[in-house]
Amino acid sequence: xxxxxxxxxxxxxxxxxxxxxxxxxxxxxxxxxxxxxxxxxxxxxxxxxxxxxxxxxxxxxxxxxxxxxxxxxxxxxxxxxxxxxxxxxxxxxxxxxxxxxxxxxxxxxxxxxxxxxxxxxxxxxxxxxxxxxxxxxxxxxxxxxxxxxxxxxxxxxxxxxxxxxxxxxxxxxxxxxxxxxxxxxxxxxxxxxxxxxxxxxxxxxxxxxxxxxxxxxxxxxxxxxxxxxxxxxxxxxxxxxxxxxxxxxxxxxxxxxxxxxxxxxxxxx
Length: 269
Description:
The chain is mainly β. It contains three helices and 19 strands. It starts with a strand and ends with a strand.
């Protein structure tokens, strides 16, 4: 088993940014979902409500590291804008009703760009000021587990074997990117074997498997055309439904921090 893909999402719900290597920090991959778009009252705005977000490209590597962000939207005809990590402007935000969490406002220039890109007034761009202030679901996490603006865990993992099985069930294949996992693993002999793992060692990082991920309608949106379909949720509902939800990929909690790279071997417990 080896790591075949690493994905960052610098701003939650925007375009996926594949990378060759990353650092697994206490709150997830450095540069992953550290920024977020919120509405006027501080609630998260995602592509499930606003698919146009998939056409916003957020790249922290373009600024030379995690201390800034470059936003672009070639399909929307907007000039890029550079955003620096704010030092003040503390606001309270919520991720799917959880919180409030401390964040810092990116400022009027970034907000104006985001509003134009998304065609929505009142939205703002914020940066996660303190991941340690966030409490994750007790059913998944321990008090020492934290995340930035990821949904339920700091890191997510999907396997190509599980995706191949799902594609075999569906009438039309979908790419594994529909599930927006941070880590993609190949070489697993059995589909959905990751459901039964307890711990993953990859590169110099050690991650605890906290459980499977329940999936939402965002996986049914084509990130290129922005059209909505019924799969993969429809097919998952037939083969991977329990507790009233559909499931694919797994949540990971960080036990030991360290670098990871595409090609790294995995060992599991």
